[in-house]
Design a protein that fits this description.
Elements: H1 3-10, H2 12-50, E1 54-58, H3 75-80, E2 85-100, E3 103-112, E4 124-127, E5 136-140, E6 150-153, E7 156-164, E8 175-179, H4 180-187, H5 192-202, H6 204-207, E9 220-225, H7 231-239, E10 244-248, H8 249-260, H9 262-293, H10 295-303, H11 308-337, H12 349-375
Parallel strand pairs: 3-8, 5-7
Antiparallel strand pairs: 1-9, 1-10, 2-3, 2-9, 4-7, 5-8, 6-7
Helix pairs in contact: 1-11, 2-8, 2-9, 2-11, 9-11, 9-12, 11-12
């Protein structure tokens, strides 16, 4: 006869409510870890999908995902001249806020070096990829644009020809893909007043020019290497120019994870640790209260000659059943709730396994409190 199951069956509602409370704590812990995993996945999305072996960025800078980078819009031609380079594509990305039908929308405009890069690495769920060098866009569904809709960006109108899902930047803004030339035109838009003021500030000589000087909006050149070439040879050749910096894909990922996101990672781990401590305290109090409620039955067991090991196993089994049920309910709640969150929450099997180990350790320590109280009960107390 399993005394733990007998006791749970006798007080089933109390056990279910207790497991549900632990489940919410488990769901919160999984949500914190899953949120971090989702942010990391979003941050690495472009780096992993775009398929570049090296990133050529502004000299002395660490690339568009760590700090501002502006290079010449013709740098890709220089890079293509290096032996071992299979292709070089221009890249630009910036946030843009715009109005559509009275709604304020926000997107991360990402330039594709069309036609060299038509965006075959982009997962299209509806519509098609870019087929024209101008005035077409592929939008993520999180932006709120519909297929065939026209959006005014800069001085021009762009037609949404394709939709993606789950393509966002580090900040959670949906990606809006246009050609590099269109992206530069959108970024360099200035009002007439700005142009007039810039000409007036530059003096009479500048007033005759048709436009004001503009900084380059190209953030990086994406380099794809031939399979047999030594990456270090290409890096040394590009670095010798002096005005640019070269980063590998692994270096870009390292910059994102260990510099830009490390504070977020430490903070989330700290919150997760606090939640696990709270879970341990709650489970310990629950087991202690269950033991206190069963003191009469424990004294009766001792009176009829039950060994201490029977009582220890009963309390330990109850603690682990509460922990396991809480973890299971928490996982089910996570599957139901997290898809409706505005940011991606990734629940990985490895994280669930680690959380399961943490719950097992917490339940083991929590049961010690109840066991220590149960062992102090004397058989004579059954008469009290």
């Amino acid at each position: 006869m399993n005394l733990a199951f007998k006791d749970i069956r006798f007080n089933l509602l109390r056990f279910l409510l207790t497991a549900l409370g632990v489940a919410f704590l488990m769901m919160s812990s999984m949500g914190m870890v899953g949120l971090y995993r989702g942010i990391v996945a979003d941050a690495l999305l472009i780096i992993e999908r775009i398929g570049a072996d090296q990133w050529v960025v502004q000299g002395g800078r660490q690339g568009p995902f760590s700090e501002g980078s502006a290079i010449s819009s013709t740098l890709d031609r220089r890079v293509e001249g290096i032996a071992g380079v299979a292709s070089a594509r221009r890249f630009v990305q910036f946030s843009q806020q715009f109005t559509l039908h009275g709604r304020q929308l926000r997107a991360s405009v990402t330039g594709l070096d069309f036609p060299k890069d038509p965006g075959r690495w982009i997962p299209i769920v509806r519509g098609r990829l870019l087929a024209s060098g101008h005035y077409e866009a592929v939008a993520d569904m999180s932006i709120g644009l519909r297929l065939g809709e026209t959006v005014h960006l800069g001085q021009d109108d762009y037609t949404v020809v394709g939709l993606t899902r789950g393509m966002v930047d580090t900040g959670g803004d949906g990606l809006l893909f246009v050609t590099v030339n269109d992206a530069v035109a959108i970024a360099q838009r200035r009002t007439s007043e700005e142009v007039l003021l810039a000409r007036a500030g530059a003096g009479p000589a500048a007033a005759s020019r048709s436009s004001v000087p503009q900084d380059s909006k190209i953030a990086a050149v994406l380099v794809t290497l031939n399979p047999a070439v030594d990456p270090e040879m290409v890096r040394r050749a590009v670095s010798s120019w002096g005005d640019v910096n070269v980063l590998s894909r692994a270096e870009q990922e390292n910059l994102l994870l260990n510099q830009r996101l490390w504070r977020l990672r430490v903070q989330i781990l700290a919150f997760t640790g606090v939640l696990l401590v709270v879970t341990g305290i709650v489970v310990s109090l629950i087991i202690y209260m269950l033991t206190m409620e069963n003191l009469h039955e424990i004294a009766m067991l001792k009176l009829i000659g039950a060994d201490n090991s029977v009582i220890i196993v009963m309390i330990a089994q109850q603690a682990f059943l509460i922990g396991a049920s809480g973890l299971g309910f928490g996982l089910m709640l996570s599957r139901l709730v997290f898809p409706f969150f505005p940011r991606k929450v990734l629940i990985l099997p490895g994280d669930v396994a680690l959380l399961g180990i943490a719950v097992a350790v917490i339940c083991a320590f929590a049961s010690l409190l109840g066991i220590s109280r149960a062992l102090k009960v004397r058989a004579q107390e059954v008469l009290s």
